[in-house]
Amino acid sequence: MKRLLLALPIIALITACNKEPGEGGKAEIRGRVIEQKYSNGGSPIGDPYPAPGENVYIVYGDASNGAYPDDNVDTGPNGEFRFIWLRKGTYTIYTLSDCADCEGDTKSIFARVEIGDKKEVMNAGDLLIEKR
Known about the structure:
elongated; 4-stranded mixed beta sheet; 4-stranded antiparallel beta sheet; Immunoglobulin-like
């Protein structure tokens, strides 16, 4: 019985060290939102360009279960964004895009990012959105 009582605090400490994705680390995720203008007829107008002032959302873990965002940031003047102070784990990054054929006239553009090292800087890449 004494051994069991001694083992319980050790087991509790070991399981407490397993941290879920989220804030509290030193890693970060960076990326950029690119915008493509479209005519009312659905034809692209010009070349894509950086999208300043767009909301970008992050879900700590997998967003396939319809999870609400855990945080959000706005893109800077060059369309870039970053989420800082993250722990190791899987993250879902997304932003909203216009969509003529979608319910509500918007759709989500996703990127899934895996942070494997506690100080890693990951690039989510370019998220291409449509503007009508």
